[in-house]
Amino acid sequence: MKSSLNSNYSSLRLNPARFAPAAAALVLLALASSARAQDSTPPALPSPLCDSLQIPDANSLTFHGYAIGVQIYRWNGTSWVFVAPSATLYADPGLHGQVAIHYAGPTWESKSGSKVVGMRLAACTPDTTAIPWLKLGAVSSRGPGVFDRVTFIQRVNTVGGKAPVTAGTTVGQLANVPYSAEYYFYSPTD
Q: Is the full-model pTM beyond 0.85?
C-alpha cells in the first residue's frame, strides 16, 4: 500500500515520452563521464568539498543505480519551491533493466517491493549547473529486496535538475526539470 505522501504526488509522476529527448541527452552526458568498471566500488568524491558525504566504515555498498527523471518544482508567486523527484532507476549506465522508482519522501521502491525512505544528512555542489550531491540516512527500509536493511544513500554525478531561472506565470504552476544521477545504497557490514 502506498503512503499518503506518495498518493498526493501520484499525479506528478513522470511521463517518459514527454521528457525523453532532453532526458536522454542529460543521461548520455552524465554517463559518459561516470561509467564505472566495477559497480561494487563506492563513488569517487571530490575532497575536501564532498568529505561530508563519506559513509561510515560499518556499512558496505549493496546497490548502485542509474537514475533518469525530473525534479518537480511549484511556483509560489515569488520563487520555485521543490516538490518531489520522479525518476526511474536502472541497473546499468545504458539504462537497461529497470530496477526501481524514486518519488516523494524521498523514497526508492524496487520492482520486488522493497522500499527505503531517506532523510538528507549532507550535501555538496561540485557542479553549480546541477542539483547537489547528497548523503541521506535511511529513516525506514523494508524488504525483501535490494533496499532491505539500507542505512545510507548517496546521490552523485548529477546533471540538471535545478529550479527554473525564470519566474512562473501563475501561482501553483509546476515545472518538471530533467535530471540524471547515480544512487549508491549501503547496508550494515555483516
A: no
CA-to-CA dists, residue 26 to 72, 109, 148, 151, 178, angstroms: 16, 23, 30, 29, 8
Residue entry with cell 520563487: 79
What are 74's strand-pairing partners?
81, 174
> What does the alpha-carbon distance between residue 42 and residue 34 come to, in Å, rounded to a whole number?
12
- pLDDT bin (cut points 50, 70, 90) of residue 40 is confident
Alpha-carbon gap, residue 101 to 50, rounded angstroms: 26
For residue 46, what are the contacts with CB-CB under 8 A and spacing of at least 6?
A: 124, 126
Between CA 32 and CA 42 the distance in angstroms is 18
CB-based contact 132:124 (threshold 8 Å): yes
Domain ranges of the chain: 4-36+46-188
- What is the rounded CA–CA span in Å between residue 171 and residue 147? 37
Please tell me the distance from the alpha carbon of residue 130 to that of residue 188, in angstroms, as a whole number.
Answer: 30
User: Which three cell numbers mark 64?
Assistant: 548502485
